[in-house]
């Protein structure tokens, strides 16, 4: 019996299987609004058979976008544009939908990767980022503005406002982006956070803003919607954020009603040295799961069905997320189900594609009842 294709729960949210499509920036929004690209992109991934599909990092305020093409959820216009995509997905797919809420902090105002990805200073049409401290991400980059008390309040409120909009749109899960060197990770990491007030210095102080934001979200989000956090478990830099601090953060989140952790790494410093390879981040998910008992999502170079199954069978994580592998093979869950003897929900328009020798591939779940 395949664990990958057995049902899972995060909080009160039931999932048909343990395959998660990781958040992936598309740099294709206009003024924060989802476009036809998002309809095509999220639409096709919604037909993949995965249990949970995350939107890309979705900015809670315009200045919190990584690039001008980032998706946002800060206004009625951005809400309406994303709502159009959500409704289309709902109409044709039983996939559970998650949204990743994000603020880029000092990594805001960058070019799309296909245009080089570098920071665009205000003098060239960009904008100045916000951060815990006026310390740039990369040497020679313009310094961000340090958030003052009013700025911290604005950020907390922006996350809650976006979460309320996400609830109105009917998302099943909300993931707070505290990874990859963006604003909340910048507060956690001593490499980016040089504050000498209550939000910097000790571990307790560096965790303060991310925990305040989480608490505010938990108060606003009913327990029927899964609320979790994506972390970078280590900065991969000596003297930076690391696994023991991540475990302390996870314990605090668990105590505040966090439903799941999505465990990634890196992104806060150009000095990082990442030993990239299959499963390279899995031990971090395993450690968080062991320490807190919270459902964890493992991610990072998980590309094979048996590899994903083994991670679950060994109890290293509760779910696996794929990003690049899912773009390369958008029917990855179908093919994994064929290999492991699982079943997937498939749209009835595609039922005739079921290979004769796999007549149970589109099984009980094929009708896609929610
Ligand atoms: C095109 C692309 C866009 C991404 N955008 C995001 C994002 O918006 N938020 C995020 O947390 N991670 C993002 N990531 C990282 C992925 O979610 C994932 O953690 C990473 O790619 C490792 O998984 P993989 O080896 O299966 O690709 C992105 C990755 C890719 C390839």
Textual characterization of the structure:
The protein is of the alpha/beta class and 370 residues long. Helices cover 32% and strands 15% of the residues. The protein has 10 helices and 13 strands. An 8-stranded parallel β-barrel has the order 3-4-6-9-10-11-12-13, surrounded by 6 helices. A two-stranded antiparallel ribbon has the order 1-2. It has a two-stranded parallel sheet with strand order 7-8. Helix 3 packs parallel to helix 5 (203-220), helix 5 runs parallel beside helix 6 (243-255) and helix 6 (243-255) crosses helix 7. It is globular. The two termini are 23 Å apart. The relative contact order is 0.14. Residues 366-370 have low confidence and may be disordered.
Summarize the structure.
By secondary structure, the protein is α/β, with parallel strands linked by helices.
Set down the secondary structure blueprint:
Elements: E1 8-10, E2 13-15, E3 19-21, H1 36-46, E4 52-59, E5 71-72, H2 76-92, E6 96-102, E7 130-131, E8 145-146, H3 149-169, E9 173-178, H4 183-188, H5 203-220, E10 226-232, H6 243-255, E11 260-264, H7 282-292, E12 296-299, H8 305-313, E13 319-322, H9 324-328, H10 332-340
Parallel strand pairs: 3-4, 3-13, 4-5, 4-6, 6-9, 7-8, 9-10, 10-11, 11-12, 12-13
Antiparallel strand pairs: 1-2
Helix pairs in contact: 1-2, 3-5, 5-6, 6-7
Residues 22-25, 56-57, 100, 177, 179-180, 230, 264, 299-302, 322-325 line the site of flavin mononucleotide (FMN).
């Amino acid at each position: 019996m395949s664990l990958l294709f057995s049902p899972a729960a995060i909080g009160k949210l039931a999932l048909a299987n343990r395959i998660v499509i990781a958040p992936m920036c598309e740099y294709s929004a206009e003024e924060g609004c989802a476009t036809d690209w998002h309809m095509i992109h999220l639409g096709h991934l919604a037909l993949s058979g995965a249990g949970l599909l995350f939107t890309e990092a979705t900015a809670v305020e315009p200045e919190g976008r990584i690039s001008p093409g980032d998706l946002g959820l800060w206004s009625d216009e951005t809400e309406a544009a994303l709502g159009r995509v959500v409704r289309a997905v709902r109409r044709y797919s039983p996939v559970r939908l998650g949204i990743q809420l994000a603020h880029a902090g000092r990594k805001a105002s960058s070019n799309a990767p296909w245009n080089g990805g570098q920071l665009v200073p205000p003098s060239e049409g960009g904008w100045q980022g916000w951060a815990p401290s006026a310390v740039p991400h990369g040497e020679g980059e313009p310094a961000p503005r340090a958030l003052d008390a009013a700025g911290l309040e604005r950020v907390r409120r922006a996350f809650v406002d976006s979460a309320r909009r996400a609830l109105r749109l009917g998302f099943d899960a909300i993931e707070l982006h505290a990874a990859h060197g963006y604003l909340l990770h910048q507060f956690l990491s001593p490499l980016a956070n040089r504050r000498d007030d209550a939000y910097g210095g000790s571990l307790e102080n560096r965790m303060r803003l991310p925990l305040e934001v989480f608490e505010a979200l938990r108060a606003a989000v009913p327990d029927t919607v899964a609320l979790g956090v994506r972390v970078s478990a280590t900065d991969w830099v000596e003297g930076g954020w690391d696994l023991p601090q991540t475990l302390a953060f996870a314990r605090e989140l668990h105590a505040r009603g966090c439903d799941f952790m999505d465990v990634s790494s890196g992104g806060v410093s150009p000095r990082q040295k990442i030993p990239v390879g299959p499963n390279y981040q899995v031990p971090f998910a395993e450690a968080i799961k062991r320490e807190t008992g919270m459902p964890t999502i493992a991610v990072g170079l998980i590309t094979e069905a048996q590899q994903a199954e083994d991670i679950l069978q060994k109890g290293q994580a509760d779910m696996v997320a794929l990003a690049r592998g899912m773009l390369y093979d958008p029917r990855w869950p179908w093919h994994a189900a064929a290999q492991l003897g699982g079943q997937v929900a498939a749209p009835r328009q595609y039922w005739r594609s079921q290979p004769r020798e796999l007549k149970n591939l589109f099984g009980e779940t094929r009708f896609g009842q929610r």
